[in-house]
Amino acid sequence: MIRVNIFYGSVTAPVRWKTRLWTAIATWPNAAMTYTAPVREMLFAIEHLAELPGIARLPGWEDAGLDTAQAVLAECARFSEGVIAPLNRVGDTQPSALIGGQVRTTPGFADAFRQFAEAGWQGLQHPAAYGGQDLPKSIGAACAEMFQAACLSFALCPMLTDGAIEALLAAGSDALRSTWLPPLVEGRWTGTMNLTEPQAGSDLSQVRTRAEPQADGSHRITGTKIFITWGDHDMAANIVHLVLARLAGAPEGVKGISLFLVPKRLPAADGRPAERNAVECVSLEHKLGIRASPTAVLQFEGATGYLLGAENCGLETMFVMMNAARFTVGVQGVAVAERACQQALTFARERVQGRPVDAPRGAAGPWPIAAHPDVRRMLLTMRALTEGCRALTAFAAGACDRAHRAPDPETRAGQQALHELLVPLVKGYATESAIEVASLGVQVHGGMGFIEETGAAQHYRDARILTIYEGTTAIQANDLVGRKTLRDGGAAMRSMLAGIEVCEAALAAHPHAAAAAMLRGLAPAREALAKVVDYMLAHGRSDTAAAYAGSVPYLMLAGCVVAGWQLARGLLAALGRLETTDDAAFFQARIDHALFYSAHLLPRAQAWKLAILHGAESIHSTALV
């Protein structure tokens, strides 16, 4: 057991004490920041919340049942833990750099990406016709969590490639698909999303990048794009940029934006990348977190591009890529939270300090800090939030799978509406929760958490971007109010609320005391959400300032309640397994974490409700000083 006195600032011997501190930290078990994929927890969520057994009965997925999921997740865990996770720390300390006009990635990244592509991980969810494995999103989302938890900076690259593939599948012509999809799906090339410009952040109506038609049907693209994640690198032979730009004479605003496919290198007749296109990485950003991921400023100077989809419909097509990315950013939140949880729990079990207030009189130490009540509260908050958000993402992934493959149109439409409703919750609630979890992780470490060498701070820094990119929490919240609540008169939200009531009835009918305890938290939280939905429908058009002033609390309220609902479904499933398994401890943990969420986190719903119903006026009447 290593014990370190962190108060090393001796006036007489500061160098000696600092040396001893750094030596101790370097040998502390947490210093390696190892990652163990929570495969059993993921399989539990896939089976009971995504409902994979039912998905495996849908056309084309007959072989994608629980046995397949278990095999895929086990191999993904091996790869994530052994190949990707060791890159997390080195990526933070040795980030990508722009050298002589070429981005050089962190040592080890290129080799890991080669192995990633060769193993077929890029094509996990994509059509077999283009080289993919065509597995359900329910399985793919769990694998994505492992990759993102192992090294967020690394996994951002294939995440954006997934989005580019989705956009090509949705809007690409046969010619574009046949040329560009196979190398993207196989991981030989990577993809990027190019929206933001220096004068146009989230307001894409201000996009100025120009597109000029050419006689051969291509276009010349000219402009500057900023904040382009993995905009340039040395890990793949080519990079496929999807770029928003305006044609001459296009309507003003977002209705005049088109989408273009602009490669870093133009393919030769045999399909291999050859001539360098007129797109250049002119600088990389220096960032708080995700340092190994190169965030580029790209300059397009008459670069050759190909129209993707219809003219002036670029934003609609880009939303396909954007929504895929938004869901996976929510998964990133779960991933970073899981990594922070694991590190904080390991530290708390091993760090010896103080005597717990409830320690039996005369009992001998040493006492790990995990025995202190407030440390336990922090650790359980971290775990409950992480499992709640994992449950939320699994539920959303299952809805997406049914929306794509359910045999009858009515089911597909209903599941599509549910999935679209859940995406802003996944993106917003899971990422906001990730910041809370990572911050608590630093707190659990105490002073050591503020020291970079322990690694806890990296999770906090990495998590901070998640609520910003791919649309801030406020953008997700505005979408939840406008497109997902007001547009259909609250139909999708009320349908979901009805689903929660069905779960409440099951809890009420169950004889176990844990079901009654879960119901005590879930029912009032659902009632709070229902009242806020009524408020949004009543004020969303007549008093937009009041409605949108509460949009973020509305998103957090909805995310909290839906995550609690899914944990309640998991609790009922776990209760059914307690008497029929040799591993009762695993299922008891699912019950315990759900009950903690019910007692400590679902009560937040009341505070969000009150802030929404009665807080709008203070936002607009209070002076900013």
Layout of secondary structure:
Blueprint: H1 14-27, H2 39-48, H3 52-55, H4 66-84, H5 87-93, E1 97-99, E2 102-104, H6 109-118, H7 137-150, H8 152-171, H9 174-185, E3 189-194, E4 210-213, E5 219-229, E6 238-247, E7 258-263, E8 265-267, E9 273-276, E10 279-284, E11 295-307, H10 314-350, H11 373-405, H12 409-445, H13 456-463, H14 473-486, H15 491-509, H16 513-539, H17 544-549, H18 551-577, H19 584-601, H20 604-614, H21 616-621
Parallel strand pairs: 3-6, 4-6
Antiparallel strand pairs: 1-2, 4-5, 5-11, 6-7, 7-11, 8-9, 10-11
Helix pairs in contact: 2-4, 2-11, 4-7, 7-8, 7-10, 7-11, 8-9, 8-10, 10-11, 10-12, 10-13, 11-12, 11-18, 11-19, 12-13, 12-14, 12-18, 14-18, 15-16, 15-18, 16-18, 16-19, 16-20, 18-19, 18-20
How would you state the average pLDDT, rounded? 93
Overall structural class, as computed from helix and strand content, comes to: alpha+beta
- The counted number of beta strands is 11
Describe the sheet with the most strands: 5 strands, mixed, barrel
Rg from alpha-carbon coordinates: 25 Å
The percentage helix is 55-70%
| Poorly predicted segments | 1-32
The strand order across the widest sheet is 4-5-11-7-6
| Multimerization state | single chain
Helix count, per DSSP? 21
Distance between the termini: 51 Å
Strand residue content = 5-15%
Shape from CA axes? globular
